[in-house]
C-alpha cells in the first residue's frame, strides 16, 4: 500500500557462485600450492576471524619457502620431494578449507536486519535499583528523538490505481444516492 519496502540485498546467481568457487579452489591446487593463499584470503574476508587471517598470511611464506627448496636442490634429493609434497598439501588443504567454509556461508540463511521497530528500547547502559551510584548520580541515558519513518514516493502505477479507485468510489456514492438507497437488483 505504501510502495516498495527495502528488502534484503540482491544475491549472486547460482552460476556465478559456482564459477567463483571453482576458480578460488583451483587457484590453490592447480598452481602447485604457490597461490594457496588466495582461497585462504577469501575465507578471511568472508569470516573476518583472526585465525583465518593468520592462516592466509602464514601460507604465503610457507609456500614460497617450499618452492625455493624445490628450485634450489637437485631433483634426486629427497628434500625436493618433501617440499613438493608440502606445496601440494598446502594447496589441497587451502582449497578444501575454502570449499567447506564457502559452502556453509552460502547455505546458511542470512538474517535481514532491516529497520529497527519504531519503539525499540534504548541500547545504552541501564541503571537498575541496586546499582552502586558512588559520589555522583549515574548519568541519565540520552534519549534521541525518533524521526518518523520516511515514506518513499509511490510508483506511478499505484497512483493510477488509487485514482481509479477514488473515481469508482465517487461513482458508487452518486449512484446509490440516485436510487434512494435501495439495495437490490436493477
Tag the structure with descriptive keywords.
mainly alpha; single chain; 186 residues; 5 helices; 0% strand; elongated
Structural account:
With 186 residues, the chain is mostly helical. Helix content is 55%, strand content 0%. The chain is built from 5 helices and no strands. The chain has helices at 14-29, 37-47, 50-72, 78-107, 156-178. It starts with 13 loop residues before the first helix and ends in an 8-residue tail after the last helix. The mean pLDDT is 77.
Average pLDDT score: 77
SS-derived structural category: mainly alpha
Largest sheet: none
Strand content: under 5%
Q: How many distinct beta strands?
A: 0
In short:
With 186 residues, the protein is mostly helical.
Indicate the topology.
Blueprint: H1 14-29, H2 37-47, H3 50-72, H4 78-107, H5 156-178
Helix pairs in contact: 1-2, 1-4, 2-3, 2-4, 3-4
